[in-house]
Structures are given as structure tokens and as C-alpha cells.
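Hallway conversation turned thread

IA: we were arguing at lunch whether anyone had actually written out Heavy metal translocating P-type ATPase end to end. Turns out nobody had. So, for the record, here is the sequence (639 residues) and right after it the C-alpha cells. Reply here if something looks off.
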Amino acid sequence: MLYPQRFNQFTKEHADTLAALLCGLLLFLGWFALHFGALGWALLLLPAAYVIGGYESAREGLTTLIKEKELDVDLLMIVAAVGAASLGLWRREYHLIIDGAILILIFAISGALEGYAMRRTERSIRSLMSLTPDTATVLHQGKEEVVPISQLKVGDEIVVKPGELIPTDGIIVSGYSTLNEAAITGESLPVEKTVGAEVFAGTLNGYGALKLQVHKPAESSLIQRVIRLVEQAQTEEPPSQQFIERFERGYARVIVIAGVLLATLPPFIWGWDWETTIYRALTFLVVASPCALMAAIMPTLLSGIANGARQGILFKNGAQLEKIGKVRAIAFDKTGTLTTGQVQVSQVISSSEYSQGDVLKAAAALESCSEHPIGKAIVQAANDLNWVRGVEVQAIPGQGIIGILNNQNLVVGKATFIQQYVAQLPEALYSLAKAWEHEGKTVVWVARESGEDYEVMGAIAIADMVRTEAVATITRLRKLGVEEIVMITGDNQRTAACVAQAVGINCVYAELLPEDKLDVIRSLQKQYKIVAMVGDGINDAPALAQASVGIAMGGAGSDVALETADIVLMADRLEKIATAIKLGRRSQSIVKQNIAIALGFIILLLIGNFLGNINLPIGVIGHEGSTVLVTLSGLRLLK
């Protein structure tokens, strides 16, 4: 039973792609049979291509006609294709059947692309839903009981063990730990949480066991709000899309009405015979078909997508390649976007009796026994030094760590913790440490036993480092004419301001939750219309979905950010944003040129048809020739 279920799921999700492939194959085989004189086979294969490739367009066109009383391009293409085939059979000009099949194939491919976009949206929502566990451990009458998240009630007490994901929003009633909230708030360092603090579903618990009390329904948790925001933003149609749909229906209505008038009025007005009238009407349907207009856009955008892929820029659809060239404002996330997202040792200072290496080695001796990210950063910085592991190491939650090194007591931690052992911190070191903290860095002090007292060895600054290419990227974007560049982050105001100043961004929005970021994007869109958002975390997903163009970091980005974004920078190279904008602008230029060529051909062919100077084969040649010409023009973007 498993195989049929999987097969049914596959065919359901990929039916549009299969239809386009089969239509193309049958079209080729029909052309081959016709070329070699196998008329019977051709008349069998080509109608099959019509049915398989045109079924979905015919169904949608008829549904729109019946339910909404509107004509659209889907129905127009079917009418034009069937008209060309009928005329081909009537006049035994069978190549016209192939022309109609080409029209069908173009729309089948368009349907396949639309189906892919819908599946991508569904995958992004599924990725968000997978961020929280399906069950939670509830304390019931002193016993632990595992229950589904959906059964949690306000007031329930749940247990979260070290290393587990928080299953739902809650308040800590017992325990102490550090939580990695980067996915929700963008905070680069784990946040210390104790009794009374709120924790969010989808965040990762550190080393301490926690007992939480559920204070809101599971469906009202922050991560569930993120899911709803992404769903809403991805289903809202932008004004440009609405305009295109209205234009398509209006165009189809005009062409169909004109075709009907051309098929009925000329015998009464100009005295044409009915064969000439029908012939001219069907020629009109063929030459007025917007194939060249369609080819003016898609080959160009697909070529631009291929060009971007070679440069590490993944465009998920052609519309975003077009939009990125029109961007007037860009919002950057901080952690993992403008910064590396990994805490590192940025600076070390020592007292006069010790070297910087001594300070690092002493800190690494104790921190090597810790699982805290700060400890890991210190150990990594000391990798090239000769240090030994301390003994009798003991962590003091939220304060620091103590141990013995070379038979001497050693203390590593916050200034307030060190001051329990040292009477006074050296003034010069303390002033510099305060300056580091003002820059948003975390300062770790190191002190060791000296006789009956302790003495300060030095201090270490820990920070999430700014990407080396960030400054050049911001400068280049301004030169390209981007009017507004802002930073939006869940990190604290002080750290955000320091990073923004370092990269050259003047406008900063800090301490934002996901919905706050979404509001900032909407506000920018009111002023600048086309707005790009660059991010990497789960907390960026709603803003990425709402932005006109969402750009995710491919290496550092979360799965949800990658699924939600329209463009992915595969190697986390920020400078490629400027490259993408230039590529988008060039694609716009080529598209405009192609549209002018396509419209020019259509107008000339229509005039020729009305004057009676062209027959149907010449109309088809002109129609297909213009399609080929604009297609080749679009391929210039491959360079």
C-alpha cells in the first residue's frame, strides 16, 4: 500500500510538470511524424498533446468564464490553438496544428512554474511547524507524563531538560539555564533565564533543567504567530500582480470580441466571402496571440536566473529578478547577516605582569570544561597556544567558573563575580572593559591566586564579528541608488547601534520581535514601495515573506528563512546583493526592449491581416519569428 500512496502523492504534486513534459514530447513526435509523411500518426499524437497540455488551462479558463463571467488569456490561448488546428485540418495545412500545440506547450510550462511556487510556500510553512516538538512533558500529580502539544492547557506545568526545545511559551517557575533565542529574537548570545522569565516555543534550552508554567494557549505562542504571519504575507497579492491579472483578462476580452466581429461582420460590411472571413479571423487569432510577449519576458528572466546561479545567487522565480532591480530600500538583519553569527574573541588585554597569551591560556584551562558558547570561543582562540586543562572545575551559573591550574586557584567570569575575590579591578583595565561593553561586547575577566589574595591577569572581549564585506556592500548599494538602508534586529539597542555604525548604517530598529520586524517592512513599503529584506533566522521569516524581495543567507540561514526568501546568497556573500540588483536592472532593460519588438511585430501583422497582404502561413511565420527573435534577445542575459 505504501508505493501507491507515494505514487499518488507524487503525481498530485507534479501533475503540472508531467503534463508539460508529455505535451512537449508528443509535440516533438507529432512534428517528426508529419515531417516524414506519417500523417496518421501525426493526427494521433498532436491532438493528444493538445489534450494533455491544454486541459488545465481550458479548465481554468472555462471556470473563470462560468463563475466570474470573465475571459482570461488561458481561454484565449485555447481558442487560438484550436482555431489554428481547425483551420489546418480544413485547408490541409497541417503545420498550423503544430503552431497551436506550441501555444498549448507554453501555457503548460507556465502552469508548472506556478505549481512549483505553491509547493515552495507549503514547504516553508511545514518547516516552521517542525521547529517545535509535537509533545511536552507535563507534571501531573508529581509524575511526568508526555502529552501532545495540542492538549496543553493554561496553568499546566511542564519540564524541559537540558538540550531540549521549549515546546510552548511559558514562565519559568523553577530552575536556571541559558537559552539560545537566536532563531526567535536574533540575539547572538544565549540568554540567561531564571524564575519569572518568559521563554518562547522553538528556543533551545542550555545546560539547566527548567520547570515552566503554560501562561497562554499553544496556538497563541510566538512561533505560531510567526507561522500565521508567513502564511498571510505569502498569500497576499501585490498590486503589480493584480494589475497583470486585470490586463490579461482585458486583453483576452478585446481579442475574443474582435475575433468574433471579424468572423461575422466583413461579409455584410465589405462583401467578403465567408471562407475569406473565417480565414482572416483565424489569422487574427494567431497573430494576436501574445506568445511573443510571453517570450519577451520568461527567457530573459530564466537567463538571468541561470546567470545569477553561476555567481552564487539563487533566484527562486523570475518575478523576483525583475523586482530586485527596482528596490528602493533595503532592511538588513544583524546577527548572521551583517555579522558572522558566531561569537569570537575580539580583543584581549592583560595586566603588566602577564601577556595576552597568559590570559587566554588561563581562561581556556577552565572554559575547556564548559559547554557555554563563550567558553567555546575562548578555547578556539587559544587553540594555537600551549595550555593545559584545569582541575576541580566548577561552573557558577550566571556568574563564571572556578578551578585549579598549576596548584593555584583560578577564577574566570563577570566583573561582579571577580570582585568577590579581588578587592579592586585595575582602573585602566576596568575603563577599557566598560568601553568594550558600550560597544556591545561581552567581557570575561581572569584572576588567579597570588599568595593570600587574588590578582587580575586580564580581560577578554567576546563579540559577534562584523562580516569583512559588510562595509563595502553598504557603500556599493548607496552608489547604485538605493535610497534607504536600515538595520532591524532583535538584539539590544547598544549592540545594534555599534554594529550599524561599524558598517555605515544610520537607521537602526532594535529589540524587535518577528511581528515588529514585519511592521517595519510594511512601513518602509508605504514610503518606498519596493523593499528588500536580508536575513537568516526564523525570526526573519515573516519580514522576508512580506518584503517585496526576501533575501536569505544560504550558509548561515535557517531552513525556514531559506524556504521563505525569494533570493538566496549561496555562499553568504553580502556583496552579491549589489550584483543581483545590477542583474535585475539589466533584465528589466532587455524585457522592455523585447516587449517593444513583440508589440511591433503584432501591430505590423495585424495591419497586414486587415489589409489582406498576408496569408495564414506568413502570419504564422511572422508570429513565430518574432517569438524566436525575442527569445534569442533574452538569452543575452546568459553572458
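OS: looked through it. Residues 1-12 have pLDDT under 50 and may be disordered.
IA: good, adding that to the notes. The two ends are 50 Å apart (CA to CA).
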